[in-house]
Amino acid sequence: MNDFILKATDTTPEINFNASSGDLLIEGKLIPEDAKEFFEPILSWLDDYVKTDIYVTKLKLKLHYFNVSSSKNILYIFYTLNSLIKRERLVEIQWYYSIDEDEMHELGQDFALMVNIPFKFIEYDIYKEMKA
């Protein structure tokens, strides 16, 4: 199975899904004009990925902002990864949120209640990263 990689744009995040290591990254802004079109290849790749025999999956979500239509697709990603938990695989969601964005932290907690995947909440300073 091939990796899935997309470069970030002004409205879409970097996507770097490594099929062999199980390290999945979504980082940046997530406000595509057409969420269905943007997510279609990502969700298709994930549907194939969960059929592999990978044992450990870590999804690192470092979103600065996302819109409502994207949140539905994020939840679908979680539901898809939840199927690995049902097959006794190890899955972890690393939910990054900026120190000044309580709302993003709360959204992550809401998502965590909807699936059986362990969430690890990681606070960071987006402004320090922008200067680097």
Textual characterization of the structure:
- The chain has four helices and six strands; from the N terminus they run E-E-E-H-E-H-E-H-E-H.
- It has 132 residues and is of the alpha/beta class.
- The protein has a single domain (4-131), classed as Transcription Regulator spoIIAA.
- The protein has a six-stranded mixed β-sheet, with helices on one face.
- The longest helix has 19 residues, at 68-86.
- The protein is globular and about 40 Å long.
- The model has no long low-confidence stretch (mean pLDDT 93).
Quick rundown:
This protein has 4 helices and 6 strands. It has 132 residues and is α/β, with parallel strands linked by helices.
Q: Spans of 5+ residues with little confidence (pLDDT < 50)? A: none
Query: Considering the protein shown, what is the CATH homologous superfamily?
Result: STAS domain
What proportion strand?
Answer: 25-35%
Mean pLDDT: 93
Q: Assign a percent range to the helix content.
A: 40-55%
Number of strands: 6
If you compute it from the alpha carbons, what radius of gyration comes out, rounded to the nearest whole angstrom? 14 Å
Termini gap: 34 Å
Question: What is the approximate shape?
Answer: globular
Structural class: alpha/beta
Give structural attributes:
alpha/beta; Transcription Regulator spoIIAA; 4 helices; 6 strands; globular
Task: Please specify the SSE layout and strand pairing.
Layout: E1 4-6, E2 14-17, E3 23-30, H1 35-49, E4 56-66, H2 68-86, E5 90-98, H3 102-114, E6 119-124, H4 126-131
Parallel strand pairs: 3-4, 4-5, 5-6
Antiparallel strand pairs: 1-2, 2-3
